[in-house]
Design goal:
Layout (H helix, E strand, L loop, with lengths): L7 H11 L4 H8 L3 H15 L4 E4 L2 E4 L1 H29 L1 E6 L1 H19 L2 E6 L4 H4 L5 E5 L7 E15 L1 H4 L6 H5 L2 E5 L5 H5 L12 E5 L2 H9 L5 E3 L5 H6 L3 E2 L5 E12 L7 H26 L4
Parallel strand pairs: 3-4, 3-5, 7-8
Antiparallel strand pairs: 1-2, 5-11, 6-9, 6-10, 6-11
């Protein structure tokens, strides 16, 4: 098939040369040799079958045909640049990520500047646990804990949650408790995922679930805030409890953390064949940030007095 248009590179060099003092100065701006610029201009003239420049020694000026061609191609070149920039912004520079209110407030929001600085990606957080926000395209990704695989969504496990009993420093009293002591405390929990304390005590045969005094909250964030105020003991988990443990508002009541049979996963719509560049970059950052949170969580537990 015969080529119907010259290369975009040749057109870009022509437009640059049309506004330059000489091919040599244009070559410096484009990081090319003067002969390379001359060859590309000559090839473009051969393709068009007309001279675009009237040359006089080291200088050149547009011919009549060159003036007409510049008027035609320069706006088109600008349109291509704008379209390319817009696609780049849409595909690489912006993401909407759905997650729970608790994870959004306690972990995601404080890290948004890091994502912006490192990746140049603008993240909008959508506080929601509704899978339809992905199916409708309202969000491109979601980070959800305690959610099973959903129809029409790809699920990638981020980490399996462990939990550690924690409370405000005044309630803990500067020492680590036994499981029997813990069972006698007011235990704070959430509606979903359910039965967290029952699962935590499952390995302690001497503790009956019916003996546990539990108070149920609608979200993890409200549960943790109540514990910080002295209302009882919570199960602190990596990532979601980071800010509370790092600030010292919550401290471990025991050294032992246990698997909870729950986990956090990254979700995206199945209808797209592959994640976008922005989604891949964000997922890579996310896994690294989660790994750092888990290491910090384990280190904090090791530092507790016996």
């Amino acid at each position: 098939m015969l080529r119907q248009a010259p290369s975009l590179e040749a057109i870009e060099i022509f437009v640059a040369a049309a506004g330059g003092a000489s091919f040599r100065s244009v070559a410096r701006e484009l990081a090319l040799s003067p002969s390379a610029v001359s060859r590309r201009i000559a090839a473009l003239e051969t393709f068009l079958g007309t001279r675009l420049f009237d040359r006089n020694g080291q200088s050149q000026r547009l011919s009549a045909a060159g003036t007409r061609y510049l008027a035609a191609v320069e706006p088109a070149l600008d349109a291509i640049r704008r379209a390319t920039g817009q696609v780049g912004t849409d595909a690489v520079g912006r993401l909407t990520v759905a997650t729970s209110h608790s994870l959004a407030a306690a972990w995601m929001a404080p890290r948004l500047p890091e994502v912006q600085d490192l990746l140049g990606i603008e993240i909008e957080i959508l506080p929601s646990r509704d899978p339809d926000v992905l199916r409708s395209g309202e969000a491109q990704l979601a980070i959800w804990g305690g959610m099973a695989a959903q129809p029409g969504l790809v699920m990638e496990r981020l980490f399996d949650a462990v939990a550690l009993p924690a409370a405000c420093p005044r309630r803990v009293g500067g020492r680590l408790w036994s499981a029997a002591e813990l069972a006698g405390e007011p235990l704070l929990t959430v509606r979903s995922p359910s039965r967290l304390w029952e699962r935590w005590f499952a390995g302690d045969g001497g503790v009956s679930p019916n003996e546990l005094r539990q108070r149920v909250f609608p979200t993890l964030q409200l549960m943790y805030e109540a514990a910080c105020a002295g209302g009882g003991v919570v199960l602190a988990m990596p990532v979601i409890a980071d800010s509370y443990l790092a600030s010292g508002r919550l401290v471990p009541a025991m050294r032992e953390s246990r698997q909870m049979g729950e986990g956090y996963s990254l979700f995206r719509p199945m209808r797209r064949s592959s994640p976008s560049a922005a989604e891949r970059q964000f997922a890579l950052w996310l896994r690294g940030a989660i790994d750092r949170s888990r290491v910090e969580f384990d280190e904090l537990v090791r530092r507790q007095p016996t």
